[in-house]
Amino acid sequence: KDSLGALGSRIGLRIGNAVNDDKLTTDATYTAILAGQFTTVTAENAMKWEVVEPSRGVNDFAAADRLVTFAAAHRQLVRGHTLLWHNQIPGWLTSGVTDGSISRSELRTILKRHVTTEVTHFKGKIWQWDVANEFFTDSTPSTINPNDFWVANLGEGIIADVFRWARAADPRALLFYNDYNIAGEDGTNAKADAVHAWAKGLKRQGVPIDGIGDQGHLDTQYPFPTTMTANLRRYEAAGFKVAITEADVRTFVDNATDQNPTDALALMAQPYEFSQMLKACLAVRACISFTVWGVNDRDSWIPGFFTDPLQGYATLHDVHLQPKPAFTTLQQDL
Ligand code: XIL
């Protein structure tokens, strides 16, 4: 009864994790942690375009369906991730655009079909959709990235169109814009300012955008962003729900076997930053979910992505799937 999920439920906050659906049939410990501790799940990859439309016009929702079924069996709500992003789009699509065999108007039609097909497939089963992901630059000032694949080919307005298509296909799902460093994590607040102004503008024009997801990928080499609560409150004041969607706290690794730092201060930094991030969400009424990105350090994306120098140790359970100090800290905070 003192699982993270149960503790969150008492205060109306869903606690989640990102799921690799293969593990649900092959790893009982992984599955027990997921079922026992969490009240919302996100597909780590299974709902991304390259997975759901491996060849043109041929959809495969099998992996995502397995996760949705698992979630229903365990009374978990599902975050859909993600409809419009520059990464993990099918090879047939990018090569068609590059070699000119897919024209811009055809690209728009293909995108509309993708969004409508996927949102319709999961209609009634998705709590929050990450409709659009990672469109803003990390520069100061931050803007919508003109070189983004979608913006370069179809213009900025395509983002609003995708929100409209998603709303039409499933009017009850909460539609989110999702990005990293949009609650002050970059130390400048530039990206937070830009996303706030843009989202508020879209809302004013009647674009159906309900929420802002802050990914929450933190790094112990930087201080905790003290403007996080203020940034979440600013989104709330503009009428948005907010969510922490991909929380992890990476640390330089000097023990590659265990994805583990050995330095005592590094070990303390991780629970501290997780705790501060949860508290930022707890301090904001509009913050409806706190999702961790990865069930354990063995399966986390961090060591595969941040390799030079190697980083890891980013989740709540270690490589042996044992709970870490960060886990107990969140339990106490809840
Ligand atoms: C990552 C997954 O965790 C990896 O398994 C995959 O290889 C690449 O994508 N921001 C996002 C997520 O929005 O979709 C990314 O997930 C991590 C960064």
From TrEMBL:
The keyword Kinase does not apply. It catalyses: Endohydrolysis of (1->4)-beta-D-xylosidic linkages in xylans. The keyword Ubl conjugation does not apply. Keywords: Carbohydrate metabolism, Glycosidase, Hydrolase, Polysaccharide degradation, Signal, Xylan degradation. Residues 1-333 form the GH10 domain. It is an enzyme of class 3 (hydrolase). Coiled coil: none annotated. Its EC number is 3.2.1.8. Belongs to the glycosyl hydrolase 10 (cellulase F) family. This is Beta-xylanase. It comes from Winogradskya humida. The gene is xynA_2. The chain holds residues 59 to 392 of 405 of the full protein.
